[in-house]
Amino acid sequence: xxxxxxxxxxxxxxxxxxxxxxxxxxxxxxxxxxxxxxxxxxxxxxxxxxxxxxxxxxxxxxxxxxxxxxxxxxxxxxxxxxxxxxxxxxxxxxxxxxxxxxxxxxxxxxxxxxxxxxxxxxxxxxxxxxxxxxxxxxxxxxxxxxxxxxxxxxxxxxxxxxxxxxxxxxxxxxxxxxxxxxxxxxxxxxxxxxxxxxxxxxxxxxxxxxxxxxxxxxxxxxxxxxxxxxxxxxxxxxxxxxxxxxxxxxxxxxxxxxxxxxxxxxxxxxxxxxxxxxxxxxxxxxxxxxxxxxxxxxxxxxxxxxxxxxxxxxxxxxxxxxxxxxxxxxxxxxxxxxxxxxxxxxxxxxxxxxxxxxxxxxxxxxxxx
Amino acid sequence: xxxxxxxxxxxxxxxxxxxxxxxxxxxxxxxxxxxxxxxxxxxxxxxxxxxxxxxxxxxxxxxxxxxxxxxxxxxxxxxxxxxxxxxxxxxxxxxxxxxxxxxxxxxxxxxxxxxxxxxxxxxxxxxxxxxxxxxxxxxxxxxxxxxxxxxxxxxxxxxxxxxxxxxxxxxxxxxxxxxxxxxxxxxxxxxxxxxxxxxxxxxxxxxxxxxxxxxxxxxxxxxxxxxxxxxxxxxxxxxxxxxxxxxxxxxxxxxxxxxxxxxxxxxxxxxxxxxxxxxxxxxxxxxxxxxxxxxxxxxxxxxxxxxxxxxxxxxxxxxxxxxxxxxxxxxxxxxxxxxxxxxxxxxxxxxxxxxxxxxxxxxxxxxxx
DNA sequence: CAGAGCAGCTAAACCGGTTTATTGAACAAG
DNA sequence: CTTGTTCAATAAACCGGTTTAGCTGCTCTG
Lengths: 369, 369
Fold this sequence. Notes:
Two copies of one chain form a homodimer. Chain A is an alpha/beta fold.
């Protein structure tokens, strides 16, 4: 009578067939007559029976679950809009599938044990690798554990796992070009912690765009994706001997903290300083001034990665996947550099794209051709 | 040779005992001689064997996992620092235990199906209920599914499940008193979506503290915990016929958006308007002006709730648990009301607690006696 | 010194599915 | 009227643990 009580044997008895027949009917395997199948399924529905995934997991030697190991200190995790959105994407893909998501949050030094534990206990059929590093030790680990995996962005060219990627560069390139077009020549970058491929991508895009425009290398400060780190990086830049007229941050959180740090120093944004973020946090449109930033479809990223992992775990081949690249969202935190420091920017007001206000329909600027 | 290959039978054979003996030895059950047990465990260690949790799950009829169903739209989820911190707390407690965390993110209308699915598939041994509503339909549902559960904050007095609670009221009461002491008489509240117990608690604390001070009821606007909602609620209050001199928000995100909305209207914080948030998001200390807000130990909350659920799932009784209440953190977004609108606040500068700057050592103000 | 009691261990059933080997019936071909 | 195929369905083995019932040999008791 109780929900979990009914087993395949009950259904078999009620339908007047064997356990095997029920299993075959349910899994749409040949060897069951059409009307028998119909009768079995009807009986199952009447009894409200669904196969126990624990039993299935044991007999099929699959866990029917995917794993996500998150190795970030809680503070950074709490500040980052990436994970909730990413997990929402995973779940959107998992709903209706037979898979569940097993989450494991570990301290960075316990990261490998996190994966080992998932494998040892047979908890998952595959894992999603986020925060991929350029020389990521998890790749050989997972290879040795022979656990299917999908990486978010490609770790190394030699990685044996399919990568599902979002290209951050177009948005950063567009941001730097936008600033250059406005007349900026001193464009600094507040990067994320070294080693991460997306951090490298953003930094490289910034540096190369400056170089391509014939500008000298800008100031580079390494942040840690935290508000505090963003604030102190900003103070360091503003208090330094060569104050930049624009800062491109590797994350919105750092940029928003930078906004406050600038204001504290009496530096007006965007009059004295232009600021660009990255992520398009929901808050970005609702700070003052509204933040020019880069947007990527993180939910879609989660979906695509999960889909790829499902294919991989079912033994099918899975090529790399490229999601749509990040796009620059123009708002109000960027403008021409201050006149007293620079010759007035060639005023090409007509050229400048219209800004959106605090409305939620910011204008997208496509990635450069 | 491969990691997952070794079974209990291999260990039994190698140790020269039966499967049952190995199982007994591993689970520290009587009936195995001390030296035999030692030999078995040594053999297991040598072979690198650990029991397959899938098999254990089937034979013990337990899932060895807890569930967390999150029913929030992705945007709200992405803005909220609560979940990452809470999950970090759960995991901190789960590490080293035999339990894993199964996450399920669903759309609010699919919430019940989320729980049903977890139960039907036998995925979890219990669930944690967050975002508890005053008349929460999940309580009878889980009761009918006979699934152990722990609620974060008490839903109804009649709820059959243990509640692990953090009292938000002391911090809100302290905030409102603090504003009253500064001389404010028009203190508005931007609440969260109706129905949630924590939303009600915060709103009630605000209203009652005003009443207790003999002040007329303040303006109340219902927000939705989103930045956009916070901004529009703020605009509504500032543009209304009776502009408040202080606003207490039910979340930092709404408060931070409120800061920008105020600035947009030319309203200076804290000169023209005092602002109080709730959550102490890492960003709160790094906006301008640094946000006076309430802080609770969400990680500790997650730990306590998980501990309670583990006890409950193992059949032991579990009373309600009270975690330390939220505390008011004074920063720079509150100050005396503008003179032109109010008689100057009784200047009791000496009385006013020292503010902390953008430093990360804000001063706590204990909950009122 | 037989029989009770018990510690220490084994064999086998069991959890609830999936999967393989096998049987039975229907039907076509020889 | 056999014989050979094919399709439908079943019985039983299996996944890898846990758990119960039972067996052995030893000690203790009367």
